[in-house]
Fold this sequence. Notes:
The complex is a heterodimer of chains A (982) and B (95). Chain A is α+β, with helices and mostly antiparallel strands. In chain A, 21% of the residues lie in helices and 27% in strands.
Amino acid sequence: MSQPYRIVGGLVGRENLVSFRFNGKRFQGYRGDTLAAALIANGQRLVGRSFKYHRPRGIFSAGSEEPNAMVQLRHGAHLEPNTRATVTELYNGLEATSQNHRGSLEFDLMAVNDLLSPFLSAGFYYKTFMWPKSFWEKVYEPAIRASAGLGRLSGEEDPDSYDKGFLHCDVLVIGSGPAGLAAALAAGRAGARVILADEDFLLGGRLNAETLAVEDMSGAGWAAQTAQELAGLPNVRMMPRTTVYGAYDHGIYGALERRTDHLATSAGKPRQVLWRIYSKRAILCAGATERPIAFGNNDRPGVMLAGSVRAYVNRWGATPGRRVAVFTSNDDGWRTAQDLSAKGIEITAVIDSRDKPALASVPGAAIVMGGRVIDVAGRKGVTAIKLAKGQTIETDCLAVSGGWNPNVHLTCHQRSFPKWRDDIAAFIPGDEMPVGLTVAGAANGALSLGAALIQGTEAGHIAATDTGHTATSITPPWAEDEPRDTAAFWHVGESKARAWLDLQNDVTVKDVRQAGEEGFRSVEHLKRYTTLGMATDQGKTANVGALAIMAEATGKSIPETGTTIFRPPYTPVAIGAFAGRSRGKAFRPTRLTPSHKWAEEQKAVFVDAGMWLRAQWFPRAGETHWRQSVDREVLQTRASVGVCDVTTLGKIDVQGRDAAEFLNRVYANGFAKLPVGKVRYGLMLREDGMAMDDGTTARLSETHFVMTTTTANAVGVFRHMEFCRQCLWPGMDVHLISVTEQWAQIAVAGPNSRALLQKIVDDSHDLSNEAFPFMACGEVTLCGGVPGRLFRISFSGELAYEVAVPARYGDALMRALMKAGEAYDVVAYGTEALGVMRVEKGHAAGNELIGQTTARDLGMGRMVSKKKDSIGSILSERDALNREDGLALVGFVPVDRSEGLNSGAHFVSPGKEVTTENDEGWMTSVAFSPSLGHSIGLGFIKRGASRIGETVIAADPVRDRKVEVEIVSPHFIDPEGERLRA
Amino acid sequence: MIINHPLLGPRDAAEFVYLGDASLIDRPDWQSDTAADDFYEYQYLRDNPAGETRELWFHEQGDRSWLVVTRNTLTHEITKVELARDVALAAGRDR
């Protein structure tokens, strides 16, 4: 198929014909085209529908500022919505579809919105969807959801992979236009480590879009030659297709590199890489973005930015029209007329808003100085323009220039504001800047080529010197300073038809004025009320024009009106790129217990416990419900013996001459006098007096303790103890190290636990009740010499031990215990049975230690020693934490024993309404006790300890349940503790 | 953000965990007559300066040093990084 709008010249590879599809139709373009350039070459003017009014829209710009030409790329799971055609590199087989229309692009059924526009003006959301209330969920929300957004997500998981990386450099140069190339060259030649990043796939920036010369070369030629020299320098890293999207603290920049977006397939490689660049100096050479002028129907396809029109002609050899008119407020617009005319494209008219002599004669063109375009004819493409004085000029493309805005965005990412420069009628970077950042070229308001080259060279030179490199002085490349005079001209007042400011959000001049009339005069309010400057383009072509209209409406100047805050990212970044490889199971590490492989062999059901994967229960043949497995594990443990891997508990090794005193301070209860060879339960408070964690600590020698923490708090407790050690008592001789992963630990519980352990622990150790009583500990050898530690502690309430061996022996120990236990019908139990047994015993755990409960609430108030300094002891004495009607942990059983219980249920007295006022506490943990044959629960209730025997209601409005429960002792099993001392 | 660790040199802030104001080092005397008030102030009252502030950072993904970082809340500039242990010792804290 031919490309009817392709002309001679440009930087596309004519020998490389590329096929692509747009809305199913086949087109051809060349390597080096963007999708937009190829669509222009093929005369496809209508490319999408607008957000709100579904007006026909075409390609507006030639860069990342594009508000209109957004398409969906690829298909299936690879589908990507809201992709700007102007920065999409063409590849063979590319598939693009237009978005935001019902029915075809040409006949969008939603275009009726345009007729309803009087009802859809600024703030219509806030005014329209108010009543009736019953419509909120059933009518308004579905309707808004159906019409919101532009493109559609595939709804499938992103099949591409993304990566992250870190880069370091002396000088980061952002943008590879004339200033950026000159800066990189100056710094690179001086030997500085330079990164040169540009969002485009071709380095050179505007040099590729202009016919200006550098030295005795074409601009594009100089850019290519400079890029080649830089590529040859080993200290320079060139990063095309890389957008530096954010400036962060201390010289750190975020950058997104598109690795395979220009290829038909990623072939398994990461599609995009998110870089964190650490720079000593950075030079922003991001150039400038042209802004439009608002006039009637200025959103019609074929109305484009003037600099973009000549970019398509000069860089891509594709003309947006055959009879082009130019409407400008500045000298730069004239270059579009001259460049196009030189290529043989008919210029119908040059309309300049300024009352001054014509800048040049353009063959065949009507020159209208002091002119205004007030309206555009042609719905799906310009056919003619109408001027203020009544003339109508037939034309198929209108190139508009309202001047250029320096791309100051990154200079403002740390909350500084740009400042206004009257002579170019634009904002330039403010005085405060991210540390280490300088700006050169058009981004700095130096809008002419000659000035950009000089500023770039100087900035590169200074950055190299600042980072310790001796730069030989170099002369900036020479280029002319082309005329850049501009007038502040924002919109055509004579226009009757709607004049558009923000093409992406369908915001008109009238909307901005209306917002001002309704009091939304702060620019931040203006943005939120009208949606101006939101969405994918963040108003790059719209913001300054809207500010000018608001300033005019409120009688203030533009700098007084101010700008909204610029935030990263500069252009959209896919969430997948931020996630990188941290997806699914790779989001965080999975920690496996030493007996994991063995548990897998037993077909255990596993549960996530923080990062750990723990065996939850071990189903046996014939068991069809988890309760069957768990009940069996509990009953068999209590009847004989059970084993459970408890390695996940945090273990902290505490050593030093002051270790005992240190523990005495971090635990609320006393530890100073714990004898060697003994274990003690410890309760740790936060400084505010709330319970923080609990566990057991064993004294292995005068100067050596081993502490256990709960699985969930292991990291936090260790951090807290390091804080105490380094910040509070730096003079203490004590050292801490986490040994959670170094030791495998297995609980052996039940009346036969001693008998079982006697078969495992080497004979030289006496395990009798007299020699190794409850709460004893010691170093032992097992299985003929394996070093280990034995603790006689019990979480289940049975005669029980925990045995620890170096982690590498964990699997063998589990197998040895199960083998030796065959004689006692040993059972392996998982976390579920562990939980049931601890509820039966009345031990507090994670559900009770929630950071809002005190030692007193937990029934351990007397443990908090008042005779020593310990963390939390002073603030635990506060009156409010010691109220007579305070919470207390007690047990609950259903009055009708056949009923189940729900944790999370709240207690109210019988006959009372279930209200917050009547709330007396809540159920924290529940279990079915196979030992008792009914459900049991633990919970906090006001004055609990004195209410044993009372009946209350456990109300669970979420699950719509109310259960009559009796308050009982929290110790359901062996309240006297006879079993564990046996 | 980069924290210049006194022992390890410049490290990315992602390696650290933030706690709060460095005044948390100044834990009051539990035996003072005004201990209840002192601990209340220590636990809950903080200055909220616009400008220089000293705060505690823990090098959790590193050498487990607690650091006192002097940082400007307006500019994020870090002017000083010290080992919290040295700061505590200098402030007279001991055992």
